[in-house]
Amino acid sequence: MSRPFNFSAGPAAIPEEVLQQAASEMLNWGGSGMGVMEMSHRGKEFISIYETAEANLRELLAVPSNFHILFMQGGGLAENAIVPLNLSKGGVADFVVTGSWSQKSHQEAAKYATPRLAATGKDSNFTSVPDAKDWKLSADAQYVHLCSNETIHGVEFQELPDLKALGCDAPLVIDFSSNVASRALDWSRVGLAFGGAQKNIGPAGLTIVIVRDDLLGHALDICPSAFNYKTVADNQSMFNTPPTWGIYMAGLTFQWLKRQTEGSLTGVAAMEVRNKAKADFFYQYLDASQLYLNKVDVAYRSRMNIPFFLRDESRNDAFLAGAKARGLLQLKGHKSVGGMRASLYNAMPMGGVQALVGYMQDFERTST
User: Fold this and answer.
1) Is residue 101 annotated as part of the catalytic site, yes or no?
2) Do 68 and 201 fall within a single domain?
3) Radius of gyration of the chain (CA)
4) Among 213, 312, 345, 368, which is least packed by CB within 10 angstroms?
5) In CATH, what number is assigned to the domain containing residue 61?
6) 221 is catalytic
């Protein structure tokens, strides 16, 4: 019997091939006689795991040589403090608030910097993104922060802003926790990207930070040494014991990503084609439906996280119970917005989306 389809927003589904490989290596990795969780992070066995994972991630995301890849801990929420501790110099940081996660980033930064609201989608109930030409960017901002994909509200930047074209010389910081490795990224527009691994990369516990060379070495004196990007970079993410299991699982996922193909495309380029096809298929059904509704501006609809609502919300519990009976899991929306949410990360196959739409069609027929 095939596994159920897991639509959780995070921790999220991991490719079955990755889980099977991890299970087969649990007690004895590479003939070492040890499982990865038992290894010294400074031993040659784990160093090879780490170096391969770092190299594969750099290749998959086309990360330029003047960026460091850091494997850290604390998740995206910790980075809401770690970023201003490293980049703000105690000064001004601009924030584009497009949903719950960028809102948390804006609030947390106030402990270490002077956060300014450059733009907000609050007036639209976070169903759209303010046009970049209308952003109120500060002349003295040390960086500009945005969340490239809002997991709760289902809003995604289809293109990152070109701050230089907007007359801003500050580096762009992006929280890409929920759409990392799902589409190509223009590094010429980014100074730092961070994200928790538990959506598109692996289990919770690992945080990925990709930071440009010139942004290292500016941490506030109060910044803990383990969170100082320069210290972490100088020690190849080994200043403290890193999340070894998370790095190993991420490395397996990177290998899986490299094996994915769509025509002549491989890796992230192949996943971008798949992710667009999955999202388009689902949105087309939602837009034609008389029972279900997606409220997000079409221009900013997320490919990764699709919130939707039943027009008759008295049917919510019945919908979720029926979905679970069909092997369609974790579809309840976030408590702050209600409704439903389907997360279509890289590990979700088109077959899972088709199964969901098939169930929704059946449920709609019995509800009218």
Assistant:
1) yes
2) yes
3) 21
4) 368
5) 3.40.640.10
6) no
| CA distances from residue 367 to 125, 283, 304 in whole angstroms, order as listed | 28, 20, 27
- The mean pLDDT of 25-53, rounded to a whole number, is 97
Annotated catalytic residue, options 94, 101, 135, 278: 101
The catalytically annotated residue of 29, 94, 135, 175 is 175
Q: pLDDT digits over 87-100, tens only?
A: 999 999 999 999 99
Provide the domain count of the chain.
Answer: 2
List pLDDT tens digits, range 261-318.
999 999 999 999 999 999 999 999 999 999 999 999 999 999 999 999 999 999 999 9
Report the alpha-carbon distance of residue 76 to residue 183 in Å, rounded: 19
- Residues in Cβ contact with 263 at an 8 Å cutoff, skipping those fewer than 6 apart: 273
At 41, list the tokens.
Answer: 């992070």
Catalytic hit among 199, 230, 278, 332? 199
187 is catalytic: no
Residue that finishes a domain, picked among 238, 258, 278: 258
